[in-house]
Every structure is written in C-alpha cells, then in structure tokens.
Design goal:
Length: about 425
Amino acid sequence: MTLQLDLERIAAAKLWLTSAAPNAALKGAPRDLPYLASALYALIPIAQEEVDRITCDEWWRIYINPSWLSEASVQEIGEELAHVTWHLLTDHANRARGMSVDSSTANHWKVASDMAVANAFDPEAFELSNLPRAADAGLAIGLSAEEYFASLSRLPVNDPPSGGSSGPQDGCGSGADGIPRSNELGPGSDVGGISAVEANEIRRQVAISYRDHIKKRGTKPGDDLRWIRQTLEPRVPWESLLSGAVRRAIGWAAGRGEYTYSRPSRRSSTIRGVVLPGQKRPVPRVSVIVDTSGSVDDELLARALGEVDGAISALGIPGANITIYSVDAAVHTIAKVRHALDARLVGAGGTDLRIGLKAAELERPRPEVIIVFTDGDTPWPTNPPPGSTVIAAILGRHQDELPPTPTWATRVECLVETWN
C-alpha cells in the first residue's frame, strides 16, 4: 500500500510559520517568520512510517510519519518543520563532519545542534518545545553547535547505537549530522533532491531575509550573526592567501636563471672553440617592510609575520637573504634576520611607507620579493621598486573600510573579527 501524506496540513503549517498575526500573543497565532519561506517551500516531503515525526536528509528531503501528521496540530507540525529546516539552513551535516561526528558521538551532536536550533528563535515569540535548552544544561545561550558539542562530549549520555550509521529513528536525520540512515533514499533517488549549489542559494536568500528580520525585531545571539556573515560574506582564511602569495612570488624569483661562466654549459662540447655560459638558480632575496605606526594591531602583525616565516622556511630560503625594515614616518632599523619574528621593531608615529620602499629599492643586491605589512593608511609611490614583486599585507578588522593599495602590489587582507 502506498503511503499518502496530508499535504494540506503541511501547507497549513508552512503558512502558520510565515504569516503575520494581528495579535501574536494569542495562543496558536501564526508565528510571523517570513524569512523561512524560501527554505520551507524547497523541502521535499516523503511519507515514511519508520520515523517518529519528521527527519531530514542532506538533499532537503523530509521524512514524515503519516500517522503522526494526521493527528498532530498545525502548531506541532510547524515546530517540527522549523526544527529540521534550521538544521539544513545552518548546514549541520557538513559541520558535524568537520567535528568528526560518528555513531559514537552522534548523541552529543544531536543535543548540541538542537540547542543551537532552539537558540535561533525568540522563545517569547516561538519556542520549540521539544528541543533541549542550553540554559537547562548550565550552558550559555548563543554558542555554536560546535561549542555546545565540545562541552557536552565531556558529559555522560545514553549509549550510542552500534555500527557505522544511525538507525531510522535516531536523531534528526543525516541532514543534521551527516550520518546516513537506513530509511533514507540517498543522493541518486528518482524522487529528486536539492543540490549543494541550490542549497547554498536558499541559505543566501534566507540569510538576507533573516538579517532584515532581526534588524526590525532586535538583536540575536552570536551564533546566528555568525551564520548570516558566513553565508552572505564567505571568507577564505587570510593565512593561506598570504603564505600562498609569498610562495608564488619567491618561486617565480627562484625560477629566473642567471648565466655564469663558473659553470659552463654542457652544450659547449658541441661547439669547438666556444665556451657557453651555464645557468645557476639564484637564491631569492626577500625584504620585509613593517609598518610600526601606532595604528597597527601588534597581535595581528605577529600572526602575519609568522605566516611569512612558515612560507619562507618551507621554501628553504636562507636567513641571510631576509632583510627587515622597521618603518613609520622614517626608517628606524634595517636588519638581516633568520626569522621575520626575530625582528626588533621600533617606532610608533605616523606612516609613510614610500620611505621604506625607497630604502628597499636602494638595497644591493636588490630584493626580488618585498612584503609590506601595514594597515594601509599610508601614501604609496607611483611605481613599484624596479625588479621586485611587492606583496601588500593589509592588517585590519572585518567591517573596517580599508584604504586602497596600488595595482602593482599583490593585496592580501589580513583581518580579524570585531564581533563575538
């Protein structure tokens, strides 16, 4: 017998979630969560008796028990829909894999992710009654699922299911923890599903609507703000960008051969009476110009210098070929060091890095790579130092309006967060 779902009840629950009510204080009144609409109407409902209520998989299919659906109130259905939808919106499945969640820790992750979902809604306006609350476990409100998981994993829980996957009634489905269930259809099903690209677009649409919603209704705990920013402003870690730029610049410089007669070419033997010069691979010379003005974040500067050290060490550049310039409105120190972090930095006045770049240009032999660490609030020369690749590492904070840099410099923004 083919199982049938009462689609009208599901539609009524979606409208109950997204519609406004003249008096929201009335019991059972619509919840006025319009930002969920794009996600709710993307869900693919499937009838399945193996689940207790509603679970989800990673392809935005929701598995609904028809018997439960026919007996549950519109409010109960709406709460379950909001619950699984928020798991999908915040990509708890991939985040669980990032935390190496498996069958032995799935119970911890279920509680942790459900606490994060419960935090997403104002309890005075819409409380998910079936979800655990962070306060009941003595934990702070507004933490991420990962933070709750780290705390809960040190507490005793029920024995986890054995084997490599959870059973059909365990947890909220693979859409919440990335662990396949025996009742789920999988990625190749003819039923269809939401692809990763489509899911990201849904998340983006909801994040825009949710951001506008909380601006009108007040502030939200930190994890929801993090989710909005990560969805709308995805960021590549600056550490890998900086070290990659340094490696590419040094690798390009090292690849430029220099002719020398101290090592004649092997082709000389084919031409009588002529000695052809051979080539040698030069060791790139690196200069680091550090803006020591008072506006530069010292902690962030130390982190950035450490990334440069790591990149240079990985390429085997001898310390004697690294020159550090300490500059604000003047060049204070010039030193050859083994590691960038060994530099003695002096100065705390204004900034004019043109002086530092000019000093590097006059260095003999000239550096092939110049790395500039600055907050960007400085004048720049019209042209780069001849024969040098310049990397401008701009130190700042997210949401700051960072000054421009010349087009001839490779710009890498090294930023830290300004919010909790």
